[in-house]
Amino acid sequence: MSNLVIGAIGTACLFAGILMGVNVMVVLGLVGAFGLAALVGFGAATSLLSTVFFETTHSFHFSVIPLFLLMGFFAMRAGLGEDLFEATTKWLGGLRGGLAISTTMGAAAFGAASGSSVGTATVFTKLALPEMLARGYDKSLASASIAIAGTLAVMIPPSALVVVYGILTDSSIGALLVAGFIPGIVFAFVLCVTIWLVVLRRPDLAPVDTTQYSLREKLSSLRLAGPLVLVIVCIVTGLYAGVFTPTEAGAVGAALTFVLALIRHKGVRGIDLPATLLETIRTSAMIFAILISALLFSKFLALSGVANAVGGFLTGLDVAPWVIVVLVSLIYLSLGMMMDAPALLAITLPITHPVMMDLGFDPIWFGIFVVLLVEIGAVTPPVGINCFVVQAASDGRVRLEDVFKGLVPFVLAGFAMLILLYLVPQIALFLPERM
User: Fold this and answer.
1) pLDDT tens-place string over residues 105-129
2) How far apart (Å, rounded) are the C-alpha atoms in residues 25 and 245?
3) What is the Cα gyration radius of the chain?
4) Which of 16, 322, 333, 428 would you label with 33, given CA atoms 20 to 30 Å apart?
5) DSSP per-residue string spanning 65-79
6) d(CA 195, CA 124)
């Protein structure tokens, strides 16, 4: 049996296991380990396994992930999402659709600190959804705007998912983190414009909030939200100027959000430090396990020749590069409906990344493009994990059907952002090229 046939069988087993509901980490690791044993023998496969485990657990780059996660959990404990929602509501709530717009802007800022789309969606469902429904907002518009706003968390630095991409593709993590800043801001603006256009066409979906706030109240709200903005600016500026490495940026961010949490709760007790640290360890362990399994599977694909065969087929097609980009996008969007983001990157990047590099695309640009693709998949049915999160955190206020129903204009906005990134790659590359 040829190596290519073994690779094809292994790949088929991988997707069969995922469709049967086997944990992605488990099926990736098993297929990678047994596939390597079939290709190079048990002894050589064992040596490869030990090498992958050692390199993964001793890599300096991997320390970025738990630090960014810890920063996000401290931000949640500090109640920074509540401060941001209050501030953006006072400044933007008077517009038609203003509560949904303020939720989007608040989620963008909070997501930059948390780095978690699920966490951001959970926090703002509890904060913003009751307010929007109480003021007469349509359930579909309110819940869908929160679900899509959560995706901004992985675009604006710091982002653990961007770090995962950097590790899997051996790209500059610092450049990737900085590259996501402008696209994240632009996407937030695109979502706000989408909300405005939707309510302009259907005013009944979002009544105008008549609550008036004085300039003094608006400025006072910035006092609450300002510290988090300063944390984000500190991290992005430090990375851009080369003041500290991504790992040091994570440490600085975690330390600053810890201080904000201490100030908010006037001590350690309200933070529940043991539970916060344990949650960070569990999430980090899950991501590390997926990455280790992914690296095993990646080596299996490379040795079997499947990655080269698929890549050679795609790059050999006599079509324009944009056609390949569309094909890759369809792959990510379809698979993104069925699995979480780290697992999806782990499975696809060994094939898609070399193809895009052979076509001459920039690895930093592709990182931002593919992260946006993965997050659009996170809100599309039948899975759409952010939608399930919003429904579960709504305490029965909305049904899953309501969330999915309202997502159509926002998914179209996501596609528009993808097209914009393709046509104007400097949106992602402007800052990294000037670091």
Assistant:
1) 888 888 777 777 777 888 888 888 8
2) 29
3) 22
4) 333
5) HHHHHHHHHHHHHTT
6) 16
Q: Which two tokens stand for residue 52?
A: 């992958």
Q: Is the dihedral of CA 25, 26, 31, 36 positive or negative?
A: positive
CA distance 293 to 288: 9
At residue 9, does pLDDT exceed 80? yes
Q: Can you give the pLDDT at residue 383?
A: 66
Torsion angle of C-alpha atoms 31, 36, 41, 45, degrees rounded to 10 = -110
How buried is residue 248: exposed, middle or buried, by Cβ count under 10 Å (0-12/13-18/19+)?
Answer: middle
CB contact at 8 A, 171 and 165 = yes
Mean pLDDT over 364-388 rounds to: 85
Distance CA 214, CA 147 (A): 31
- Classified as helix, coil or strand, 408 is helix
Interior angle at CA 104, CA 69 and CA 209, nearest 5: 140
Q: Is 13 helix (H, G, I), strand (E, B) or coil?
A: helix
State the number of CA atoms in the 13 A half-sphere of 54 facing the CB: 6
Element (H, E) at 9: helix 3-19
Tell me the two tokens of residue 88: 């953006």
Output b/e per residue, 84-106; b: 16+ Cβ within 10 A. Answer: bbbbbbbbbbbbbbbbbbbbbbb
The model's pTM: 0.84
The secondary structure element, H or E, covering residue 169 is helix 160-169
19-52: pLDDT as tens digits: 787 777 788 888 888 888 888 888 777 777 777 7
pLDDT value for 56 = 65
Which tokens belong to 122? 């959970």
* 314: pLDDT strictly greater than 90: no
Q: How far apart are CA 315 and CA 393, in angstroms?
A: 44
- Tokens representing residue 240 in the block: 């851009």
Q: 365 or 150: whose pLDDT is higher? A: 365
Amino acid at 48: L
pLDDT the model gives residue 186? 94
Mean pLDDT of the region 318-329: 88
Mean pLDDT of 387-407: 87
Is the Cβ–Cβ distance between 314 and 324 less than 8 Å?
yes
What CA–CA distance (Å, rounded) separates 395 from 332?
A: 31
Q: What is the model's pLDDT at position 182?
A: 92
What are the CB-based long-range contacts (under 8 Å, 24+) for 326-329? 328/352, 328/355, 328/356, 329/373, 329/418
- Residue 225 near residue 164, CB atoms below 8 Å: no
The pLDDT score that the predictor gives to residue 57 is: 64
